[in-house]
Amino acid sequence: MLSKLRKYIAATAASVVLLQAPIAHSEGYQMTVAGASPGGLWSLLGAGIDGAVRQSYPDSKITYQTSGGGIANVGQLERNQANLAIIHDAELLLAKKGDAPFREPVDSLRVLSYMYTWAPMQALVNNDFAAEYKIESFEDIAKVKPPITIAINKRGNIASNVAIEMLNAIGVSEKDIESWGGKIIYAASGEQISLIQDRRADLLINSLFVKHSSIMQAASSVDLTLLSMNKDTVDAVNKESGTIAFDIPAGTYEWSPSAVHTASLGATLAVREDMDEELAYSLTKALFENYKSIAGVHSAMKALTPEVMSSVTVVPYHEGAMRYLKEAGLK
Question: What is the pLDDT of residues 209-235, one digit of tens each?
Answer without folding.
Answer: 999 999 999 999 999 999 999 999 999
